[in-house]
Amino acid sequence: AQSVTQPDIHITVSEGASLELRCNYSYGATPYLFWYVQSPGQGLQLLLKYFSGDTLVQGIKGFEAEFKRSQSSFNLRKPSVHWSDAAEYFCAVGSGGYQKVTFGTGTKLQVIP
Amino acid sequence: DVKVTQSSRYLVKRTGEKVFLECVQDMDHENMFWYRQDPGLGLRLIYFSYDVKMKEKGDIPEGYSVSREKKERFSLILESASTNQTSMYLCASSFGLNEQFFGPGTRLTVL
To answer: Which class for A108: exposed (0-12), middle (13-18), buried (19 or more C-beta within 10 A)?
Structure first.
């Protein structure tokens, strides 16, 4: 069965600092990988996705993620964090078929001035 | 833009009541999903549907049922609400193997 681990429950960074959120997955075949963001009181919005091809993917809001098969990882990065990036971030892995997606438990990002 | 709407943002019900949560999407997506979200547990899949009148159990279907009579509408039903079903419920839709689009969520409190 597929699974996702986000080892960091809560991360605090200063505005302007770089950010890396960790994600490790478990899946037998080539995975479909996603990062979503959830602002307080809102649904989830897709930041970026990886299906195949270039292992470095660019997303919205200046985020990027790198797929590393050897490490079973799909870490999310941003070079300079803005106060508006404070939110909860979810990594997810999808399988084929009807695209059943398994979500991680989320990482809550706090941005301090 | 894809729009997924949920019938209520906040809902308060009593133990034993029958509860209906409605979800509507406007982009002709074939797949629709119901999740519940609890702190520290992330999103857990309750049921999903890949076509009208078709449904599949997710990871935590106990205590829930679903209905999909029309392609755009997917309903989650709590036959007899219990306090442990107090949660945030998120609906999503997708087309094929693409990303899911989420509604704003319904925060259900069962007293």
So the answer is: middle
pLDDT digits (tens, 9 = 90+) for B5-50: 999 999 999 999 999 999 999 989 999 999 999 988 999 999 999 8
Q: Half-sphere exposure (CA, 13 Å, Cβ side) for B101?
A: 19
List Cα–Cα distances, B89 to A29, A75, B36, B72, B78, in angstroms. 30, 27, 4, 18, 12
Contacts with A36 from chain B: Cβ below 8 Å: 102
- Whether B40 and A100 lie within 8 Å, measured CB to CB: no
Convert the pLDDT of each residue in A63-85 to its tens digit: 999 999 999 999 999 999 999 99
